[in-house]
Amino acid sequence: MTRSVSLICARTCYASPVSQASLSRRNALIRRRNQCRFSVYASKDSSGPKVAIAGVTGAVGQEFLRVLTERNFPYSRMKMLASARSAGKEVEFDGEMYKIEELKEDSFDDIDIALFSAGGSISKKFGPIAAKKGCFVVDNSSAFRLTEGVPLIIPEVNALSMAEYKLGKMHGGIISNPNCSTIIALVAVTPIHRAVGIKRMVASTYQAASGAGALAMAELEQQTRDVLNGDPVTMKIFNLQYAFNLFSHNAPMTDNGYNEEEMKMVNETKKIWSTEDVDIAATCIRVPVMRAHAESINLTLCSDLDEKDAKEILRSSAGIKIIDDRANNCFPTPLDASNRDEIYVGRIRQDISQPGRTGLELFVCGDQIKKGAALNAVQIAELLL
User: Fold this and answer.
1) From CA 210, how far away is CA 220, in angstroms rounded?
2) What own/partner pairs with CB < 8 Å and gap ≥ 24 does 44-49 have?
3) Which entry of 28, 188, 239, 305 is 20 to 30 Å from 83 by CA?
């Protein structure tokens, strides 16, 4: 079950130079747009699945609720789960107040679909328990992504990989949500891969605070205040100043010199595309952006593809919005992508360092919390219906 969501407003492009007044008006418009509340309610239906949210108090957990509401997801019962310290608190969903329950082994009795975003250790402990009880677990952590037999799904890319996973036809199971950077990249480049084949991809990511959770977002905001006020910066989540700075992604380093975030993109892409015949390298950077990641992607293609044809392929593909106005220097930004379903794609151009038309460059932006996490998980849940 899917519903198309129309854009509230079109991106306004300004030719350089831009007046400060114009920039202020544009940024105010984007801020108002990003703060809008959903007016559509989820669909409470006695015939719908019984749903649980594990990790409901986190940034992605809260986004689960917004996306379920926005997409009018049918449900007959909703259960809110979190750690013991959050148990007893209340959360509003679909016009009703729900009391948060402590996540326990019996939390998934009589639950059909569980959306997990409570961290890898919690998923490893409770995911298999829920699946054995007949629940379909859609897990946002890295716990099962590379586990053999566990589908790793981006609905626009490889929905057929979970074709047998259906309520009433299969007794539970675990389905993994890929890493946010992988989702954003592959929604953008898979249409090209289908058309002519990709034999090499090099990605450089510019990742927002949202990827590290709500506390990291709060720390970026606090550090910005600290710097502007001339105060010592508060450093709790990262051991570096984040405001007005950027640094290599904070994921642990591996023996090959890549960090775990970079290797997620490498390994997950190969699993999702079901191939080892593609070379992938990534460099992942944290940037002081609140929400939505950006990525610069360089592709080596298996055969020639003109940039104009590439643009038309992308324009006609699901989940993509093109912003590629060279005349006005207007291309995707994280602000454009914030709170949006689509992956924004621009800077579509031939790589002049590669022979013929076998090289292509793209710049993409996507909302890490939304399509990079919660929306993708809810789309997976829709495929279960």
Assistant:
1) 10
2) 44/74, 44/75, 44/76, 44/94, 45/74, 45/75, 45/76, 46/76, 47/74, 47/76, 48/74, 48/75, 48/76, 49/74, 49/75, 49/76, 49/112, 49/113, 49/167, 49/384, 49/385
3) 239
Per-residue model confidence as pLDDT tens digits over 119-165: 999 999 999 999 999 999 999 999 999 999 999 999 999 999 999 99
Report the Cα–Cα distance between both ends of the chain, in Å, rounded.
7
- Asked whether 210 and 374 are in contact (CB, 8 A), the reply is no
Please check whether residue 151 is in contact with residue 138, taking contact to mean a CB–CB distance below 8 angstroms.
no
Element of type H or E holding 122: helix 120-132
Spatial separation of the C-alpha atoms in residues 96 and 375, rounded to whole Å: 22
| C-alpha closest to that of 345 among 379, 284, 296, 300 | 296
Distance (Å, rounded) from C-alpha 78 to C-alpha 53? 8
Looking at 135, 249, 284, 293, which residue is catalytic? Answer: 293
Residues in contact with 96: Cβ distance below 8 Å, sequence separation at least 6, in sequence order: none
User: What CA–CA distance (Å, rounded) separates 309 from 331?
Assistant: 18
SS3 320: strand
Q: What's the CA gap between 163 and 324, in Å, rounded?
A: 35
- 233: tokens are 């910066």
Q: Could you say which of 180, 284, 330, 365 is catalytic?
A: 180
Catalytic (active site) residue 180: yes
Per-residue tokens: 52: 């649980």
CA-nearest of 385, 7, 332 to 184 is 332
Half-sphere exposure of 340 (CA within 13 A, CB side): 28
> How far apart, in whole angstroms, are the C-alpha atoms of residue 356 and residue 302?
11
Provide φ and ψ at 62, rounded to 5°. Answer: -65, -35
- Tens digit of each residue's pLDDT (9 = 90 or more) over 324-356: 999 999 999 999 999 999 999 999 999 999 999
Count, residues in the chain: 385
Note whether 33 and 9 are within 8 A (CB).
yes
- 350/140 Cα distance (integer angstroms): 35
User: What pLDDT score was predicted for residue 41?
Assistant: 52
